[in-house]
Amino acid sequence: MNARERGFTFIEVVITMAIIALLASIAAPLTETVVRRDKEQDLKRALYQLRDAIDSYKAASEAGRIERSVSSSGYPPSLQVLVDGARDVRSVKGERIYFLRRIPRDPFADPRLEPLEQWGLRAYSSPVDDPRPGEDVFDVYSQSEASGLNGVPYREW
């Protein structure tokens, strides 16, 4: 057996490494896109949960199950109320109506913040193009300055 038949040549190893590097350079951006798409799905899911809970609170308020003042819009005064629940005025035992188990996190927000601090709040009285908090929570939005893969800023989702 001579020396040429024992192993790989230097050229073969270099070509193999070049092919592996090329494949890795193609896979890295793809992996980044997949991770971002997963975060966007999490954001959509969180926004849906929060908005559904806000709408359920409003429906319970309009059905007379939650105590509210005449001047109130019927929307929850805070996101925390959705977790803590509201007293069911129709219940003799003083039971509560719960709308969320917990406040979902914004996947694009600073993970050191509490979930309640991650969301932007829009009051019923604030304009669509300039959402501001107020006496109630009519809508929520991501406070991220980034845009989605579709080009729409997360704040507008």
Keywords:
157 residues, two-stranded antiparallel sheet, 4 strands, Type II secretion system protein, Bac_GSPG_pilin, transmembrane, transmembrane helix
Question: Any chance you could write out the topology, listing elements then pairs?
Answer:
Elements: H1 10-62, H2 80-84, E1 86-87, E2 96-97, H3 115-118, E3 119-122, E4 139-142
Antiparallel strand pairs: 1-2, 3-4
Keywords: Membrane, Methylation, Transmembrane, Transmembrane helix
Protein name: Type II secretion system protein
Pfam family, one: N_methyl
How would you explain this protein's 3D organization?
- With 157 residues, this protein is mainly α.
- It is built from 3 helices and 4 strands; from the N terminus they run ααββαββ.
- The protein has helices at residues 10-62, 80-84, 115-118; strands at 86-87, 96-97, 119-122, 139-142.
- A two-stranded antiparallel ribbon has the order 1-2. Strands 3-4 form a two-stranded antiparallel sheet.
- A hairpin with an 8-residue loop joins strand 1 (86-87) and strand 2.
- The longest helix has 53 residues, at 10-62.
- The protein is elongated.
- The protein starts with 9 loop residues before the first helix and ends in a 15-residue tail after the last strand.
- The model has no long low-confidence stretch (mean pLDDT 91).
